[in-house]
Amino acid sequence: MTGLPAAKPACAVCDLSHPIDQPHDVESSTYKLGFWLEHDRWPTWKDAIAHCDVRTRIAAELDLRRRGLWPMGKWEAERTPRERSSAGTNLLSGLATIGPAPLGVPEGSDR
């Protein structure tokens, strides 16, 4: 008689079987309760991906924004739905290099 394959070990934080570098399951009652007890508030997806590496966090945030699940801050809530839908399309756009120094400020100096 053969038994069922052994279950993958579950994450101690969210009780879901996932690689350690992947987001926790924010819908898990284990994760919700543990987070509530530690932080005195319910978790968001932003909390669930906080332990992930940068590439995983960016990919997860883009996916969650597309699905309307990313927590909105006050500045996002005041925007129109069309503005909000395009906000997450390029998270790195705000990291563009700073342009030339303003008039009267020498190149290379601290502004």
Care to describe what's here?
- It is built from five helices and no strands.
- With 111 residues, the protein is mainly α.
- The protein has a domain of 61 residues.
- The longest helix has 13 residues.
- About 14% of the residues have low confidence.
Overall 3D geometry? Answer: globular
Q: Which spans of ≥5 residues are poorly predicted at pLDDT below 50?
A: 88-102
The CA-CA distance between the termini, in Å, is 75 Å
State the order of secondary-structure elements, H for helix, E for strand. HHHHH
Features:
mainly alpha
Write the layout of secondary structure elements.
Elements: H1 29-39, H2 45-48, H3 54-66, H4 74-77, H5 81-87
Region (Disordered): 77-111
Question: TL;DR of this structure?
Answer:
About 15% of the residues have low confidence. The protein is built from five helices and no strands. Helices cover about 35% and strands about 0% of the residues.
